Amino acid sequence: MLSYITWTVDPDWFSIGPLTVRWYGLMWALAFFLGYWVESKIYNREKMTQDQLDKLFLYMLIGTVLGARVGHCFFYDPKYYLSNLAEVLCVWKGGLSSHGGACGIIVSLWLFNKYVAKKTYIWVMDRVVIAVAIGGACIRFGNLMNHEIYGHATDVPWAFEFIKNIHHWQMGADPVFSAPSHPTQIYEMIYCLVTFSILMFLYWRTNARKYEGFLFGVFLIGVFLPRFFLEFIKNSQESFEDDMTLNMGQLLSIPLILWGVYMLYKSISQMRKEGGLQIGKESDTTPK
Question: For the chain, what are the domain ranges?
Answer without folding.
Answer: 5-11+22-273
